[in-house]
Amino acid sequence: MKTAAVAQTVPQTTVPESRAEMQLSFSPLVKQTSGAVVNVYAEKTVRQRSPFAGDPFLEQFFGQRMPNRSEKQSSLGSGVIVREDGTVVTNNHVIDGADDIKVALADGREFASTVVMKDERLDLAVLKIKGNGPFKVLPLGDSDKVEVGDLVLAIGNPFGVGQTVTSGIVSALARNQVTEGSDFSFFIQTDASINPGNSGGALIDMRGRLIGINTAIFSRGGGSNGIGFAIPANLVKVFVESAMGGGGKFARPYIGASFEPVTAEVAEALGLPRPRGALVTSVVEGGPAEKAGLKPGEVVLAVNGVEVEHPDALGYRLTTIGVGRTAQLQVSDNGREREMSLALEQAPEVPKRDARLLEGRSPLAGATVANLSPRVSEELRLPGRIRGVAITQLADGSPAARLGFAPRDIIVAINGVDIQSSADLEKIVRAGASLWRIEIERDGQRIRQFFR
């Protein structure tokens, strides 16, 4: 059955021009949306090791007097129900490491919940309420249509005082260099008051749509200074779709290239009218970028017609398009612009990671190591071109942890033998030695250490 297309008139945003308009209330909007914003209570058990643990002599005399103890720690945040079945979005740092998570609705009801998917680098988590719906939901808006100056409301549970609504405007878009350890920074900035406890709460527009998940603030004293940041709803939408699709892990597009910001000097040298875009610094052989025709020295200016401000913006645009799709890139090559198609693929795992836990009497005991592939390098945030064997995690209190080894360290050689695979490394460690000469690479620098 065919339907005729009907042109829709998009209402224009207007500025209040009279005292009557200035006295308008947000109350109807709050009543419409606040029921979908929840409190998230997370509790975890923390085990404290005895100061004598690991020392056989001291453990024999004092271990029973000072055994390992455990205590419970709780954290409080907010969340947003985005599906009627009780699917909740919050920040990963709100529930990270939690053994027990409860969700409290605005009407006072409390439910246990489970983690469907979480991602530390995006600082997002999806929870599922253990209860019968339908639950009130907050529809996801298009964060790409948000403009600086738009009115917004922030809803959450600051300092645990109860659900609180604050108002403000969108202060800036595409903010980067906001948080550490994330894949990329691409935030909506707002002056709506956001405080501890608001994390995971809603930033909504004047039509009652979710445009962001409140995540971070700039503050020296811990309170709101009118500089808050929210993860855009378009990224939240892709993350929720991935969680609902199963798999447990969020798949990021693998580009196979490295990028740097375009400075004013670089823009002038490359014939760009102003500094913008992502400068290609290297391309992995055989990767999607090389197949698309991207070359070092070129600048990516736009993705699917949307301007790219910096490398973080490029990562955001490609991530929100999603794995398995194709992105159209607008590229500048010494002032000459052209377009190309980039296939968005998941990073390959070649060679296989072959993760192994190193044991025995060696400085590396307690370290889990794996062969580096584009996928493992992406997970560890290492350059994709690096190959070898890297530490992926360390057991708490293990010899490797106490001696200063760290995840992302690349084991280059042991006792003069180059390490080619995790199997080779395990074999050398099992053989033992009276003197260990270990060479690692950390953040591009070679470090040699000696242990007895």
Automatic annotation (TrEMBL):
Q: Which UniProt keywords are listed?
A: Hydrolase, Periplasm, Protease, Repeat, Serine protease, Signal
Q: Which GO terms describe its cellular component?
A: periplasmic space
Chief location of this protein?
A: periplasm
Return one GO MF term: serine-type endopeptidase activity
Which positions bind substrate? 43, 93, 123, 197-199
Biological processes per GO annotation: proteolysis
- Write out the annotated subcellular location: Periplasm
**One Pfam family it belongs to:** PDZ_6
Q: Gene3D superfamilies per the record? A: 2.30.42.10, 2.40.10.120
Q: Which residues form the active site?
A: 93, 123, 199
Q: Which InterPro entries would you find in this protein's record? A: PDZ, PDZ_6, PDZ_sf, Pept_S1C_Do, Peptidase_S1_PA, Peptidase_S1C
- Where does the PDZ domain lie? 237-313, 354-444
Q: Which NCBIfam families does UniProt cross-reference here?
A: degP_htrA_DO
Could you tell me what this protein is called?
Serine protease
